[in-house]
Each structure stands twice: as C-alpha cells, then as structure tokens.
Design goal:
The complex is a heterodimer of chains A (365) and B (262). By secondary structure, chain A is α+β, with helices and mostly antiparallel strands. Chain A has 8 helices and 22 strands. Chain A has a 6-stranded mixed β-sheet, with helices on both faces. A 5-stranded antiparallel β-sheet of chain A has the order 13-12-11-15-21. The radius of gyration of chain A is 24 Å and the shape is globular. Chain B contains 11 helices and no strands. Chain B is globular, with a radius of gyration of 22 Å. Chain B starts with a helix and ends with a helix. The chains are: A alpha+beta (365), B mainly alpha (262).
C-alpha cells in the first residue's frame, strides 16, 4: 500500500427521484489497498461501486480515479474492471475467449494467448482455456471472472459481492486466495459485501454504510474496538449494549455507573461524543468472563442465570439473565478442553474488566 | 370420483372436433376421385405429382417464400430492438407502447386489411408484394416482440455491463454479446414470423393485387371443383411444413431460455 490516493470521492450523491441511494460520500482510497464497503442490503454500497465503475453517474459530487475527473467518462474508458455478483460469464464463449474478451483486437494474438495463459495460471485454472462456460462450477466461474478482469491490468479492481454465490467452505478458501492475489499484484481492490466476517478477514480498511451514508471508515480492528455508534457496533460482530451514567472523567478515562455491572472505569472512545450523563456502553460477548464461582481479579462482577446455551463447536454461546439489564447478556466462551458446560437455569457469575467496555457515548462524532 | 372421467371425455371430444377436419385434408389428398366425400375411390399420388406442372402455382409459392423471408427479417429486426428496450429500460409510456405493439393480435384482420388498402392507395402505393410485406410485418411484429422479450428476460443484464467494463463499446457489445446470446430467440422469431406471413390470407387477399401469394392462389382455385384435390395436396404440404417450422421455433425458443439458467 502507498500513500497515493487512487480513488477520491468528493461529496458524491445519487438520487432517484426523491430517494437518496447515496449521499455525502467522501472517501479516499490508497493505491494497493484492499477496501471493503460493508452494509446491509439497500444501504447504497453497490450504488457507490457502480458510480466508480461508470455504470451510474452521480447526481452530485465528483469521482476521481488516479487524479482524473471521471465525469462523462463511460465504463468502457475507465481504468477499472469489475467482478460481477453473477460473474457475468459470457455463455457463448469458452474460458479462454471469456478471459481474452477485453483484449481482442487490442493486442496481437500471440500476446493475448500468453496473457490468457498467465491470467488463468494466476487463478489456478491453468490449461482450462477450451472448457465451455456452462461446464464450470460456481468457484471456477468466479475465478474466470477474476482472470477476465485482471488480464486488463486495471488500476482498481471492483468486486460486487464476489463470494455470495459460493458455499461456506469455498467462500472461506477464496477469501484467503483473493487476499493473497491482491497483495502479490499490489492492485487496489474495492469490494462490496454485506458479510462482516468477509470484510474483516480480507480488508485493510472497511467503510460501513447505512441508509446511503458512509458511517465510519476504519481498519477492521478499530471498527471492532471503537465503533462510532450503536448501529455500527451491533452490525460488526455481536454486541451487548447497556445504558450507563457518566459519573466523571479524568483525561482519557471515564468513570461510569453501568446497568447491571455497576461502577467501572473505562477508556474514552475518540469516535463518539458524550453530551449528557446518560450514555451507552458496549460489551463484546467474548470479553466477559463466565464462572460458577465469583471470579477474582475483576473490578466488576454480577450474578445471573443461564437462560439459553448454544454449542458452536469452537465456542459456546450463553444468554445470561442479570438483574438490572433489560435483555439477557450474550456471552461467548472458547471451548477450552471441554471444561465449560453450563445448562439452562444454572446460576453463574459474570466478570468484567474496564478495558473490555466500549464507550458508545451519546452521539457520533 | 366421477368428474375427472367426464372431463377426460370432454377434452377428448374437444380435440377430435378441433383436429379431425384438419386430418381429412391429407386423407382426401390421396383420394383418386375428384369429389371430396366418402367412400374413397382409390389411393393415388397424382395430385402431388401434378403440383409441379402448374406455373402459376409455382409463381405463387415463390411470392409467398419471398414475402415470408423479408417479413421474417424485418419484423425480427424491429422486434429485437423493441424487445430489448421493453426488458432493459423503464420509460414513460412503456405500457402503452407494449400494448400498441401487441394490438394487431386482436384487431379483426378484415379491418386492418381494408384500412391498409385505403392507406396504401392514398399514399400512391399500388397493391403488390411490397404492400403485402408491409402488412405482414405489422401483423408479425407482436409475435417477434413476445418471443424476443422472453429471450431478453432470461438474459442477465450484467453480461452487457461486463462487456462495457472490459473496454468494449456499445455497438461492438451488441454484436459480440447481445446478438449471440439471444440468437436462439432470433431464430425462433424468424421461423414463427415466416410462418405467420406464409399462412396469412386476408391481408394478402386485399394487398397482393395481381401478384397472389400461395393462400390467395389456393382460394382462387377452390372455385374449380376439378382442382380441389390438387389444392388438398398443396394444403397438406403447407400444413406439414408449418407444423415442422413451429416445432423447430419452439425448440429454439426453449433453448434460448435454458442457456442462461445454468
């Protein structure tokens, strides 16, 4: 990754009649970065991607690619290539001709053949040039779509939900492969996804969108630890959200009285603002200690009852009813040596440390 | 349950009523007598043999083949653009436009025929094969539009976008992606519109002037009882050809739907 901006969006807006599909989008993407646009369906992420690709024109604002204003530049003249959600493999062409499609007539035949072979090797489909489009599996179609886009040597590769059509195993494998491919090529990848795990495992940075607005742009770890509001907090991973009273603040630390857990010192979240005493905090399920006896070394402990237990294999999820909290608290425990095993109705203790609590403030900064 | 069996009987009688007269046509074309009535006198292929000797019939056949071919090309070309626009874009007046294109299916042929004759005469166009072509194209357009609309319905719009995205312009994309992908639909549309024109009588009767198409020629022969078995032989051939063409068209239409599902 370099510090040079390859894509700059300045106040980009897309309006359909009275409906704002995207508005106020300001975004700088670095050269060589893997960037994901994450959000629920209908949040406008695909619209943003299609405005970069040139399939849709913004109704306001500017799209710059490599410093060039893209206004009025059609998709076929932009230095971007796209992997479509449906993969859009040409059904009447074989694999070789699909991959060569964009080069036909623009390079000598020998060079095209060589580049097709290289591109297919890159996506591990070497030698499959003559395979018909209808004979490909889902995973192979995805690889052909990747090869067909990458052979054009784009400055930016755009990916629209590239893994949503694959089954779980293949999806996880492709996540690693695509990340490796991106790093070895050094091309900027911009991916649209509704899957937070996909976004977190693959991306350098993630932009979270809701209702046509870009809420937060950060690295996966910052998004997870310092979300800018409750919406982002509960969309990225699971989150227990509890009300709290602000008692006082010293420098970077806040002293609060949290529902159920009582007095605790927590770190200030620079991405939110606190404008009144009534604020919210978030606790990730895996940050809580659960034990049969009252745990020591925890500044805050609370007793509760197991209302639900779900075994996931690598970890176990519990719902714990606690006095003072409206909803049951979610707790996730790694399945260490099969030692943890609480049943519904068991009385348990929860332990919490201040460093595990996320300040959600009252407003987005 | 009694009802299903009465329904089956009804359906059977219905089909007999519908198709039995059609089956008489080939049956009597092999009858050696000139009177179309039972009992059949004897079996012969003479009526088929004699078809080749009639110059006016051959001329009428060529007229029909020519008109059918031009109509198939014209209406399929127009239908291709209309169908793509109807499926791909949303525009003001779309429903009205789609309805108007389909209108020839429901207007009585005699009304269309007489008003077209008036229109063409007003424009100074003498009844000829040209006016038949124009009339038949109007009549065949709804068929090609509906066949091609279903071809475009199954056509993933991102295929065209993928082509633009790979640096290929609008016209080349149409040639390299759109046409090949909808080609089974195009073939189906050409076969159906050809058949529509080939079998059409009313418009051709009004608009053909002294250049009769085959159905118009057949009608003119029916007045002479001696020629009737000959007409039956010709009709049998036309029947068989039409059925074959439509079966072929249906095959291509289904292939165009199936190609995108995989």
């Amino acid at each position: 990754m370099t510090d040079r901006n390859i894509i700059e969006l300045r106040g980009v807006e897309k309006r359909y009649g009275t409906f704002l599909a995207a508005s106020g989008i300001d975004l700088d993407l670095k050269e060589g970065e893997f960037f994901s646009l994450l959000g629920p369906s209908g949040c406008g992420k695909t619209t943003v991607l299609r405005m970069i690709a040139g399939f849709q024109e913004p109704t306001a604002g500017t799209v710059l690619i490599d410093g060039q204003d893209m206004e009025g530049v059609p998709a076929n003249n932009r230095p971007t290539n796209m992997v479509f959600q449906s993969y859009a493999i040409f059904p009447h062409l074989n694999v070789g001709n699909n991959v060569a499609y964009g080069l036909r007539g623009k390079a000598p035949k020998g060079e095209i053949d060589q580049r097709v072979a290289e591109a297919l090797d890159m996506v591990e489909l070497g030698g499959l040039q003559d395979r018909g489009a209808s004979e490909l599996s889902g995973g192979q179609r995805q690889r052909v779509a990747l090869a067909r886009a990458l052979i054009m040597r784009p400055k930016v590769l755009l990916l629209d939900e590239p893994l949503s059509a694959l089954d779980k195993k293949l999806r996880e494998q492709m996540q690693f492969e695509m990340r490796n491919l991106q790093q070895s090529l050094g091309i900027t990848f911009v991916m649209v996804t509704h899957d937070q795990y996909e976004a977190m495992t693959m991306s350098d940075r993630i932009g979270v969108m809701f209702n046509g607005r870009l809420k937060q742009v950060d690295t996966p770890t910052t998004l997870y630890a310092r979300p800018c509001d409750q919406q982002v907090a509960s969309f990225i991973g699971e989150m227990n959200i509890l009300p709290a009273q602000l008692l006082g603040e010293i420098g970077n630390m806040l002293s609060i009285d949290a529902a159920a857990f009582g007095r605790i010192e927590i770190e200030r979240n620079p991405n939110v603002a606190t404008s009144s005493k009534d604020m919210n905090i978030g606790i990730r399920p895996e940050q809580l200690e659960i034990a049969a006896e009252k745990p020591e070394d925890y500044p805050s402990t609370v007793q509760g009852t197991v209302s639900n237990a779900a075994f996931y294999g690598e970890n176990i999820h519990y719902h714990i009813r606690v006095a003072g909290a409206e909803k049951p608290i979610s707790v996730s425990v790694p399945n260490y040596f099969h030692t943890v095993d609480f049943k519904r109705g068991d009385a348990v203790w929860l332990g919490l440390q201040g460093a595990s609590v996320i300040d959600l403030g009252t407003d987005t900064k | 349950m009694k009802r299903p069996s009465t329904l089956t009987a009804y359906a059977f009688l219905y089909l007999v009523f519908l198709y039995l007269p059609v089956l008489f046509l080939p049956l009597f074309s092999f009858n050696s007598g000139t009177i179309v009535a039972f009992p059949i006198k004897g079996w012969t292929l003479d009526w088929y043999r004699k078809l080749g000797e009639q110059d006016t019939l051959i001329q009428a056949l060529w007229n029909s083949l020519g008109v059918g071919t031009v109509v198939a090309i014209l209406s399929t070309a127009m239908g291709l653009f209309a169908a793509r626009a109807f499926v791909r874009y949303r525009f003001r007046g779309q429903r009205a436009a789609e309805g108007l294109v389909m209108l020839p299916l429901v207007i009585p042929g005699i009304i269309v025929a007489s008003s077209m004759l008036v229109l063409f005469l007003f424009l100074g166009l003498k009844p000829s094969l040209l006016t038949v072509v124009l009339g038949h194209t109007f009549l065949a357009l709804p068929f090609s539009v509906s066949i091609l609309k279903s071809a475009f319905d199954d056509f993933d719009a991102s295929l065209e976008e993928a082509s633009y995205d790979l640096g290929v312009g609008v016209f080349e994309t149409f040639r390299r992606v759109t046409l090949p992908v909808v080609s089974p639909g195009i073939i189906a549309s050409m076969l159906v519109t050809f058949t529509v024109s080939f079998d059409e009588f009313v418009l051709a009767f009004f608009l053909s002037g002294n250049q009769p198409t085959l159905p118009v020629y057949i009608w003119s022969q029916i007045r002479f009882p001696a020629k009737l078995p000959n007409v039956l032989a010709l009709g049998s051939i036309l029947l068989l050809t039409s059925v074959l063409l439509l079966v072929l068209a249906e095959y291509f239409r289904r292939r165009s739907s199936a190609s995108e599902v995989r």
